[in-house]
Amino acid sequence: MPRPVLATIDLSALRHNLAVVRRHAPLSRVFAVIKANAYGHGLARAARAFAAAEGYALLELEAAVELREAGYRQRVLLLEGFFEARELPVFTQHRIAAVVHSRDQLRMLQQLPADAGLDVFIKINTGMNRLGFSPAEFSDALRALKSNPGVARITLMTHFANADEPRGVDSQMEVFDRLANGEELPRSLANSAAIFRYPDTHCDWVRPGIMLYGCSPFAEQTGTEIGLKPAMTLESQIIAIRELKRGDAVGYGGLFTAEHDTRVGVVACGYADGYPRHAPTGTPVMVEGRMTRTLGRVSMDMLCADLSDIPEARTGSRVVLWGEGVPVEHVAAAAGTVGYELLCALAPRVQIVET
User: Fold this and answer.
1) pLDDT (tens digit, 9 = 90+) per residue, 178-228?
2) Residue 252 a catalytic site member
């Protein structure tokens, strides 16, 4: 029999979350962000669930080609664009749009044939300071794209650094609006957080990512609290039970020492499955439908759960690590990270089941 660790992917939850995007941004078209193997949910699986979106946004050229070969005709956008000029024929052959964010890419685009018809999204660095043309570079970059006969549609784009925080988007929008003033071109600005909080940023295209998978972009709220449904539930089973006496330790390093007699369940899940190694004692976990906590250090293939108040727990009892009843945001917060990382880190060895 296979190990009992499995991830259930709820396709109806994915579709529900896309509908939430529509409710918040009813006048915008949607690029469903499916990078990083659709945040761990599976590229092909997510593409099916998000088939009602007008486009897909991702990073990997091979994955974009896979979408085209699977028959998807929506717009496909590569969020880091192309890395070498030799990739450009693949973009044009498969009608893949590219984010253009650097002078190097502008030079590569000079090799485009006049009939290439490449769609581009010119990225403006309005304050994120990762990718994008600076305000001083923008006008020349846009002029170069407009004068390139191989370039077809041009969309203006930026990315928000603080849409999920009190600082918000005002300073970046001020820069963007100043540069875009007078340009009658489509715009793509809003990420998940901005979709919820800043309607003025929705424009022509929105780019929801984490919200599509049921995880909140906000540190102070879970996805469920803002109307989303978690699409991934990671679960396993109790494979052994230990009765600790006061003073007994459990796991590597003995990081948990029992202050009183404690019943411990050994769970078949560890960091090699994608569970965060740094999740400390007290991280929430559900056993037999009841909330409890982890104990001690997470190891490669196992972790321990406190069964002291769950007398009905036994070998074979179901354990939910995150998802159904256990918000991934709470697990991530306990481990000092974000839900994005946990979803993306799901290991290939974990069995996946669709519902």
Assistant:
1) 999 999 999 999 999 999 999 999 999 999 999 999 999 999 999 999 999
2) yes
The Cβ of residue 83 has, within 10 Å, a number of other Cβ atoms equal to: 12
Name the strand (E) or helix (H) holding 31: strand 29-33
CA distances (Å), 165 to each of 4, 161, 214, 218, in order?
39, 9, 19, 8
CA 167 to chain centre: 22
- 286 lies in the same domain as 195: no
Catalytic residue among 213, 252, 275, 340: 252
Task: Examine the domain organization and report whether 305 and 170 are in the same domain.
Answer: no
Give the total number of structural domains in the chain: 2
Three-state secondary-structure class, residue 95: coil
SS3 state at 222 = coil
- Identify whether 6 is part of a domain: no
Q: What are phi and psi of 298, to 5 degrees?
A: -75, 130
Give the CA diameter of the chain: 77
By CB neighbour count within 10 A (0-12 exposed, 13-18 middle, 19+ buried), where does 22 fall? middle
Over residues 27-48, the pLDDT tens digits come to 999 999 999 999 999 999 999 9
Q: How far is C-alpha 50 from the geometric centre of its chain's CA atoms?
A: 14
How far apart (Å, rounded) are the C-alpha atoms in residues 222 and 225?
Answer: 5
Q: Does the active-site annotation cover 245?
A: no
Q: In the numeric block, which tokens belong to residue 281?
A: 């004692």
Task: Judge if 160 and 268 occupy the same domain.
Answer: no
* Angle (nearest 5°) at CA 125 between 122 and 131: 75
119 is in which domain, residue-wise?
11-215
